[in-house]
C-alpha cells in the first residue's frame, strides 16, 4: 500500500497525489494529511483503520470527476482508487463485478468487444463508476431505461469501522438502500459494484441531429417537449445551446440517439422527429450510423481536459413554462466552450421508483457546464452561473447530486422522507463521522449530513 504523507514528501509529489486526478482545473485549497493509492480491497481496509489510528477522516476518490472535488478534504486520509481496477463478467447471469474507479468507457469497451453487452454508465467517458452510481447515475437513455443505480444488484463495502460487508436486498439492506442515491454522503467505501447488464444493440447506435439558430429557441424547445414523452423507448433525447466550432453565434442543437438491433428499426424510431421538426435548421442529419464510442468522443470534446469548470443544475417543475424559465441560460452563455443542457426524463420521471435513496426527479433536467481556461475569468463565469440559478431555482423541485456543489447553493436532493432516512443511516453506520460525507460550506455537515432544503425558501 503506497502512502504519500503531506509532511514526508516533496511538494510536487504531494500535489500530484492531491489533485493530479481531479478533472476540474479550478483546484481546491484543501489539504489531506495523506493519500493512499489503493490497489486492492485489503489496502482500502488498511487505510480506513489507519484513519482511526490517526483520529482523522476518510475521503474517497474514484474517477476525480466531481466538479467540486469532493475527494479533497482537509485533515483527512484520501483513499485514491485510481490504481484499483478490476472487472469480471458472468455472461450467464449478465452481471458484471467491477471496482469503483473503472470508467464507463473502460467497462463498455470490454463488455461490447468481448461479450456483446453494455452498461448505461455516464455520458462523459472518464467518469468513474463509483461516484456516478452513488449519485444515482443519469446514464445512457435514462428517460426510458431508468437510473443506472437501479441496475446495482449488490455492493461490497468497507465500513467506517474497517469491516468488509456484502450488501444487497436481503443483507445489510440499509447500506444497499443508501448506496443507490446517497452520493458522497454514503457512510462507507464501496470496493465493488455488482451490476446487471444490457445487450448491446446489434445495429449499434444511430442518431439524428438538428442545429438551429438561437432565434428559434421557443419554437424548437416547445417542439422537443411535446414529442419527448411518447417517443420511442430506446431513444435518448437531449438539447444543448453552445457555440459550434468556428461560429460566432450561439446555436441550439437537438440530438436523438437510438439503440436498435437493425437500421430499419432505428429509422422507424427516429422518423417522427424528422417529420415533425420545425423548419429553419442550419444543419441536420437523419438516422446516421453512430456508436457508443463515437458518442464518448463527442462528450470528451464537449468536456475538455485541463479546463476550469463551474456546474449547476435543477429539475424544473413539471408545471413550469420550461422554455421561459431557461431562456436566459440558453441564450447568454458566458464563454465559447460553455454549454447549457436540457435532458428529457419523461416517462422515467412519471413512474414509481424502487425503494432506494434516490427520489428526486422531474420531466425536465437542466444543467449548466460553464467552461473556461484562465483563472482571471473565474469571477465572471461563476457570477453568471449564480445569477442564472437564482432565476431557475424558484421553478425547480430540486437538483441532481452529480452536477452540484453543496458549498455554493442549498437545495433539495431527495424526497423529504428519503432524506430523513438517509441521514439516519449515516448516523447509525458512522456515528463518529469517519467518512467525510457532504462537502458543504466550511465542511461542517459531519455526522448530521446534508440539509435537504431549498435555500431560497428560508
From TrEMBL:
It comes from the Eukaryota. One of its GO terms (molecular function) is FAD binding. InterPro entries: FAD-bd_PCMH, FAD-bd_PCMH-like_sf, FAD-bd_PCMH_sub2, FAD-linked_Oxidoreductase, Oxid_FAD_bind_N, Oxy_OxRdtase_FAD_BS. The keyword Lyase does not apply. Residues 28-200 form the FAD-binding PCMH-type domain. Its cofactor is FAD. The keyword Oxidoreductase applies. Keywords: FAD, Flavoprotein, Oxidoreductase. PROSITE patterns: FAD_PCMH, OX2_COVAL_FAD. PANTHER family: BINDING OXIDOREDUCTASE, PUTATIVE (AFU_ORTHOLOGUE AFUA_1G17690)-RELATED (PTHR42973), FAD-BINDING PCMH-TYPE DOMAIN-CONTAINING PROTEIN (PTHR42973:SF39). Belongs to the oxygen-dependent FAD-linked oxidoreductase family. This is FAD-binding PCMH-type domain-containing protein. It comes from Penicillium steckii.
Amino acid at each position: 500500500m503506497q502512502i504519500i504523507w503531506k509532511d514526508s514528501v516533496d511538494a510536487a509529489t504531494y500535489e500530484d497525489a492531491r489533485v493530479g486526478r481531479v478533472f476540474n482545473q479550478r483546484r481546491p485549497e484543501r489539504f489531506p494529511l495523506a493519500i493512499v493509492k489503493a490497489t486492492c480491497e485489503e489496502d482500502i481496509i488498511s487505510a480506513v483503520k489507519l484513519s482511526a489510528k490517526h483520529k482523522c477522516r476518510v475521503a474517497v476518490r474514484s474517477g476525480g470527476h466531481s466538479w467540486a472535488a469532493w475527494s479533497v478534504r482537509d485533515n483527512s486520509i484520501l483513499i485514491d482508487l485510481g490504481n484499483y481496477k478490476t472487472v469480471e463478467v458472468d455472461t450467464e447471469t449478465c452481471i458484471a463485478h467491477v471496482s469503483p474507479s473503472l470508467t464507463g468507457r473502460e467497462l463498455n469497451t470490454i463488455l461490447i468487444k468481448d461479450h456483446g453487452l453494455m452498461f448505461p454508465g455516464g455520458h462523459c467517458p472518464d467518469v468513474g463508476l463509483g461516484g456516478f452510481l452513488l449519485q444515482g447515475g443519469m446514464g445512457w437513455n435514462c428517460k426510458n431505461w431508468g437510473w443506472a443505480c437501479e441496475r446495482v444488484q449488490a455492493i461490497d463495502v468497507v465500513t467506517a469501522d474497517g469491516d468488509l460487508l456484502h450488501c444487497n436486498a436481503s443483507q445489510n439492506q440499509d447500506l444497499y438502500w443508501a448506496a443507490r442515491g446517497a452520493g458522497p454522503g454514503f457512510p462507507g467505501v464501496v470496493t465493488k459494484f455488482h451490476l446487471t447488464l444490457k445487450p448491446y444493440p446489434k445495429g449499434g447506435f444511430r442518431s439524428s441531429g438538428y442545429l438551429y439558430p438561437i432565434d428559434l429557441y421557443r419554437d424548437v424547445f416547445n417542439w422537443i417537449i411535446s414529442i419527448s414523452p411518447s417517443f420511442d423507448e430506446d431513444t435518448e433525447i437531449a438539447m444543448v445551446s453552445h457555440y459550434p466550432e468556428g461560429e460566432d453565434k450561439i446555436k441550439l442543437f437537438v440530438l436523438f440517439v437510438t439503440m436498435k438491433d437493425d437500421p430499419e428499426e432505428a429509422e422507424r424510431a427516429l422518423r417522427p422527429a424528422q417529420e415533425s421538426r420545425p423548419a429553419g435548421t442550419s444543419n441536420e442529419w437523419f438516422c446516421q450510423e453512430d456508436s457508443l464510442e463515437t458518442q464518448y468522443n463527442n462528450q470528451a470534446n464537449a468536456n475538455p481536459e485541463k479546463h476550469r469548470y463551474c456546474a449547476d443544475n435543477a429539475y424544473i417543475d413539471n408545471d413550469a413554462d420550461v422554455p421561459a424559465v431557461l431562456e436566459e441560460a440558453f441564450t447568454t452563455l458566458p464563454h465559447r466552450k460553455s454549454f447549457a443542457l436540457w435532458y428529457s426524463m419523461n416517462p422515467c420521471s412519471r413512474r414509481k421508483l424502487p425503494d432506494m435513496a434516490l427520489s428526486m426527479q422531474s420531466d425536465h433536467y437542466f444543467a449548466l457546464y460553464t467552461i473556461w481556461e484562465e483563472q482571471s475569468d473565474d469571477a465572471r463565469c461563476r457570477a453568471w452561473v449564480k445569477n442564472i440559478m437564482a432565476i431557475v431555482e424558484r421553478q425547480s423541485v430540486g437538483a441532481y447530486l452529480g452536477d452540484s456543489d453543496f458549498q455554493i447553493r442549498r437545495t433539495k436532493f431527495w424526497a423529504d422522507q428519503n432524506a430523513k432516512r438517509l441521514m439516519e443511516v449515516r448516523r447509525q453506520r458512522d456515528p463518529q463521522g469517519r467518512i467525510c460525507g457532504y462537502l458543504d460550506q466550511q465542511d461542517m455537515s459531519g455526522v448530521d449530513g446534508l440539509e435537504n432544503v431549498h435555500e431560497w425558501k428560508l
